[in-house]
């Protein structure tokens, strides 16, 4: 465990317990303890791993990283103007962490499946940068029969999406039925899966992400989340 020392008021606001201005009142009530001893001085520097708030260890002291089974009907945005957001389905305290918790990449409002969330900008970069080519596996239902030759076309690296100067990177398509398939992508362009199938006359009617890198959604129930180790996604 790398030592991590923060001022008491900074600690409470960094991990989303309260604002820095509210910290004094929290400390007066003895809510923050170091090795069981209440801390009163907002300026006292504390080793975070030895602290507790309301008797519980500080949550995700080394950075938050969780997997979430996104339900349909929720956006990945922090803005509420486009409808309900995934953040409403997550602990309220996470919204107040600083740096803020964000999703690593996005899923469309109607899409379901594996989403990663973190407050570590470096992890967002590593898992979304095209340079790292982290594979993502999607399950798709479409509204028309998949045309012959689609597997080869998607694998060829020649498919051009409207308005894009560069063709899509080769992608692996596995046919599961006349209107059902799995697609593995190593890049993440805007609405890429829907645009790839749509460009071939097959509008996507169900989109579910099952895997990111080696991390599989498994039997995590829809709407639930669980902490993961950075090593599980190759960080
Ligand atoms: N591609 C899409 O079209 N939508 C998603 O949500 C993810 C990938």
Q: Can you walk through the features of this model?
A:
By secondary structure, the protein is α+β, with helices and mostly antiparallel strands. It folds into 3 domains: 5-57, Structural Genomics Hypothetical 15.5 Kd Protein In mrcA-pckA Intergenic Region, Chain A (Roll), CATH 3.10.290.10; 65-129 and 215-233, 2-Layer Sandwich (Alpha-Beta Plaits), CATH 3.30.70.580; 135-212, 2-Layer Sandwich (Alpha-Beta Plaits), CATH 3.30.70. Helices cover 17% and strands 27% of the residues. The chain has 6 helices and 15 strands. The strands form 3 sheets. Strands 7, 8, 9, 10, 11, 12, 13, 14 and 15 form a 9-stranded mixed beta sheet that branches. Strands 3-2-5-6 form a 4-stranded antiparallel beta sheet, with no helix packed on it. Strands 1-4 form a two-stranded antiparallel ribbon. The chain starts with a strand and ends in an 8-residue tail after the last strand. The structure holds uracil. Residues 107-108, 111, 191-194, 207 line the site of uracil (URA).
Oligomer: single chain
Mean pLDDT across every amino acid position: 96
How would you classify the helix and strand content by structural class? alpha+beta
CATH domain topology of the largest domain: Alpha-Beta Plaits
- What is the helix fraction of residues, given as a range? 10-25%
Q: Which spans have pLDDT < 50 for at least 5 consecutive residues? A: none
What is the end-to-end distance? 17 Å
Give the tally of structural domains: 3
CATH superfamily of the largest domain: Pseudouridine synthase I, catalytic domain, N-terminal subdomain
Number of strands: 15
Q: Can you write the helix and strand succession as a string?
A: EHHEEEEEEHEEHEHEEHEEE
How big is the Rg?
22 Å
For the report, how would you describe the main beta sheet?
9 strands, mixed
The count of helical stretches stands at 6
The CATH architecture name of the largest domain reads 2-Layer Sandwich
Structure ligands: uracil
User: How would the global form be characterised?
Assistant: elongated
Strand content: 25-35%
Regarding CATH, which class of the largest domain? Alpha Beta
């Amino acid at each position: 465990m790398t030592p991590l020392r923060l001022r008491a008021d900074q600690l409470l606001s960094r991990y989303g317990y309260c604002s820095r201005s509210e910290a004094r009142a929290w400390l007066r009530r003895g809510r923050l303890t170091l090795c069981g001893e209440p801390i009163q001085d907002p300026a006292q520097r504390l080793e975070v791993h030895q602290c507790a708030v309301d008797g519980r260890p500080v949550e995700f002291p080394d950075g938050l990283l969780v997997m979430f089974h996104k339900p349909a009907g929720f956006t990945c945005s922090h803005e509420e103007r486009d409808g309900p957001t995934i953040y409403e389905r997550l602990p309220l305290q996470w919204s107040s962490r600083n740096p803020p918790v964000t999703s690593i990449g996005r899923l469309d409002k109607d899409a379901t499946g594996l989403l990663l969330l973190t407050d570590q900008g470096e992890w967002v970069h590593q898992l979304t940068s095209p340079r790292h080519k982290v594979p993502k596996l999607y399950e798709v239902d479409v509204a028309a029969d998949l045309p012959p030759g689609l597997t080869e076309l998607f694998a060829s690296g020649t498919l051009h999406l409207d308005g894009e100067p560069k063709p899509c990177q080769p992608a692996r398509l596995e046919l599961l039925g006349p209107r059902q398939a799995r697609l593995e992508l190593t890049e993440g362009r805007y609405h890429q899966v829907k645009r790839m199938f749509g460009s071939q006359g097959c509008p996507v009617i169900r989109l579910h992400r099952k895997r990111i890198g080696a991390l599989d959604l498994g039997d995590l129930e829809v709407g639930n989340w669980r902490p993961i180790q950075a090593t599980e996604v190759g960080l």
